[in-house]
Amino acid sequence: MDTFSRPQTERSPLIDFDFANRRLRIEGESYPEDAASFFGPVFKSLAAFLAEVSAETRPAPILLDLRMSYFNSSSAKALMNLFQMLEEAARCGTPVDINWNYDPDDETMQEFGEDFGEDMECVRFNLCVLDAHVF
Amino acid sequence: MSSDLLHQDGDGSQADEGFSLYAQEEAVIRRAEGMIEQLDVVSNGVKTLADAYRIGYRETVRLVRISDRMQLELHEANRILSAQAEDLKQLNDALHKEIERRERLEHELRRIASIDELTGVHTRRYVLELTEYEQRRLMRHGKGLIVLMMDLDHFKRINDQFGHAAGDQLLRDFGELLRGGLRKGDIAGRFGGEEFLAVLPETELDVAESIANRLCEQTRAFRSPWKDGSLHMTISIGLAEVEGEEPLERAISRADQALYEAKSAGRDRVVTYRPASVR
Questions:
Q1: Side-chain half-sphere exposure of B40, counting CA atoms within 13 A
Q2: Is the pTM of this model over 0.80?
Q3: A31 vs B contacts (CB less than 8 Å)
Q4: Is B194 an annotated catalytic residue?
Q5: Interface pTM (ipTM) of the complex?
Q6: Helix (H) or strand (E) holding B199
Q7: Fewer CB within 10 Å, N side or C side of chain A?
């Protein structure tokens, strides 16, 4: 299993997990009809990947790039679950970076990022302002 | 109870003094039994915690569900609002475009109403409008305001001999000569047909006369290329000064009178209306 992906829809974000290169990406709006059934396979694939990583002697760093423009409470819970999985991997020795990207004028997403970052001890949680000219 | 059993094994009086070979074992048993009771307390405590946790977590699930519902409604309302804002913006843009179009149209209409298409000088109506303003200014500065009435000489002959296109060409040429011959701030207009009108604000009569004479000379000297040769024309000019607050028509009529005199005196000349000169 080298990749796991889901196309972006109106109510669910793009999931693009490139496990081979250890780059994970989640982008868009998230308020799926059924958050558990949407995020279930996401958790499962990440857990399987992290289990493989934990067997490595010198695991290479993992990067999760997030660019959320909107998410509901269930999705927030799902994101926190993902963060905890990565935090656990980081505690066990895998370097993990999470980039929380947000538009410069999106104060809400900035504050959510700051909030999520507070829970991270072993993961490096980076707040990244998106360049206004790029999008 | 079990210590009673032990006591029965030994001497009764000695046992009462509290000595027992198995005191240690007794204490261990008592401690173990005490711990069993403690275990019950701990297990009850853990059970209470689990129950509380379950209730708390169920409440969280319920709250998240409620929150999701409300967020969905808000999100949809937001989307409708954004769509409406976008519609409004488009309407607004369209409105602005329409306003601009109308302003352009109005500007164009005003231009059409103020500029004589053939000769490029002002229309009669616009000259009269501008002159009214100049007349009000005259009340303040008190310097002269001069009216020139001009008429192309023998224009009908040119039309008859060379056709209307030639006539139009000369009218256009004269319009250009007139505009070029006047100063900035002077007002030039076509009064109708081959008749022109100019108004010179803040001008003394003799200055106006020399401007008129120069225009007369320039018109006379001008050659307008026509087919293999060229056309030429002369102009007669009547001059009059506007007197204070009198109706403009009166000054125009005096300039007209002077023009009539210029025509009678042989055309191609400037005549200034002077009370003495008209008897």
A1: 5
A2: no
A3: 68, 71-72, 75
A4: yes
A5: 0.72
A6: strand B195-200
A7: C
